[in-house]
C-alpha cells in the first residue's frame, strides 16, 4: 500500500522526522486517546505477537524487553499469559507516563535508532510491535536486538508492509540469516490494523 493511501487512514504515517513523530505521540497520549484509538481500530499486533511467542517460550520467568512499548499493550498481553518480567522502552515520555503502574519492572526513554546502552546477552526475548513503521525505527535496530538477547533467545516483531522493502528490512533480515546471527521460526502476514486495511509482516527469530 502506498504511503499516501495509509497516511489518509493512519495520519502518523505521513510524518517524516523523529521530532514530528514525537510531537504527534505527545498529543496522541493525552486523555487516553491513543489507547482508545487502538481499541476502535482493532489493533491486533500485541495480541498476535504474544500468541506466537508463547508457543515457543514456556518459561514464565523469562525476561522480556518491549522495544517501543508505547502505553504497555504488549506487556498487558504477556501478563495475560502468565509472563512476569518485562522491561519497556519508548521515545515518547508521554506514552510511558500512561503505562499501567507495576506492569513493567523498568521503563526507559530510549531512541531505538541509536545504540541501546544495555549489556550483551541480557534478555530472554525482545518484542518490537508497531515500531517498525513509517518514520519510526529503522532496520539497523535489529542488530542491537540481537546483541542484547541471550543466545537461543527469541526476537518477535512486526514490520508495516509499506516499509518492508523501502526501509531495507527485507535485506537486513536476509543478511542476518546468511551471517548466522539468527534463524527463522515464523514469518507471515498479520492482520495488524485490519479495520484500516493496514497489514504487517510478523516475524519470530531465534538468536544464534
Provide structural commentary:
There is one protein chain. The chain has 208 residues and is of the alpha/beta class. The protein has one domain: Vaccinia Virus protein VP39 (Rossmann fold, 3-Layer(aba) Sandwich). The chain is 32% helix and 28% strand. It contains eight helices and seven strands, in the order ααααβαβαββαβαββ. Strand 2, helix 6 and strand 3 form a beta-alpha-beta unit. Helix 4 packs across helix 5. The longest helix has 11 residues. It is globular. The N terminus is likely disordered.
Shape: globular
User: How many domains make up the coordinates?
Assistant: 1
The first-level CATH class is given as Alpha Beta
Relative helix content = 25-40%
CATH topology: Rossmann fold
Proportion of residues in extended strands: 25-35%
- SSE order: HHHHEHEHEEHEHEE
End-to-end C-alpha gap: 33 Å
Q: What is the arithmetic mean of pLDDT?
A: 89
Count all strands and give the number.
7
Overall CATH architecture = 3-Layer(aba) Sandwich
Total helical segments: 8
- Biggest sheet layout: 7 strands, mixed
| Helical/strand content category | alpha/beta
CATH homologous superfamily caption? Vaccinia Virus protein VP39
User: Nearest-angstrom radius of gyration?
Assistant: 16 Å
Q: Which stretches are poorly predicted, pLDDT < 50 over at least 5 residues?
A: 1-8
Strand order of the largest sheet: 3-2-1-4-5-7-6
Amino acid at each position: 500500500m502506498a504511503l499516501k493511501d495509509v497516511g489518509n487512514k493512519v495520519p502518523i504515517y505521513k510524518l517524516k522526522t523523529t521530532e514530528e513523530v514525537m510531537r504527534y505521540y505527545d498529543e496522541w497520549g493525552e486523555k487516553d486517546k491513543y489507547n482508545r484509538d487502538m481499541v476502535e481500530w482493532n489493533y491486533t499486533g500485541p495480541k498476535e505477537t504474544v500468541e506466537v511467542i508463547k508457543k515457543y517460550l514456556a518459561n514464565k520467568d523469562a525476561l522480556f524487553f518491549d522495544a517501543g512499548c508505547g502505553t504497555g499493550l504488549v506487556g498487558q498481553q504477556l501478563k495475560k499469559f502468565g509472563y512476569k518480567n518485562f522491561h519497556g522502552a519508548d521515545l515518547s515520555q508521554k506514552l510511558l507516563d500512561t503505562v499501567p503502574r507495576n506492569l513493567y519492572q523498568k521503563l526507559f526513554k530510549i531512541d531505538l535508532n541509536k545504540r541501546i546502552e544495555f549489556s550483551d546477552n541480557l534478555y530472554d526475548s525482545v518484542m518490537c510491535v508497531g515500531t517498525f513503521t513509517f518514520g519510526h525505527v529503522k532496520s539497523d535496530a535489529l542488530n542491537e536486538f540481537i546483541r542484547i538477547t541471550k543466545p537461543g533467545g527469541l526476537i518477535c516483531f512486526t514490520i508495516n508492509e509499506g516499509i518492508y522493502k523501502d526501509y531495507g528490512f527485507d535485506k537486513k533480515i536476509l543478511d542476518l540469516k546468511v551471517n548466522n546471527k539468527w534463524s527463522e521460526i515464523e514469518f507471515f502476514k498479520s492482520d495488524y490494523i485490519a479495520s484500516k486495511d493496514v497489514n504487517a509482516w510478523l516475524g519470530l527469530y531465534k538468536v544464534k
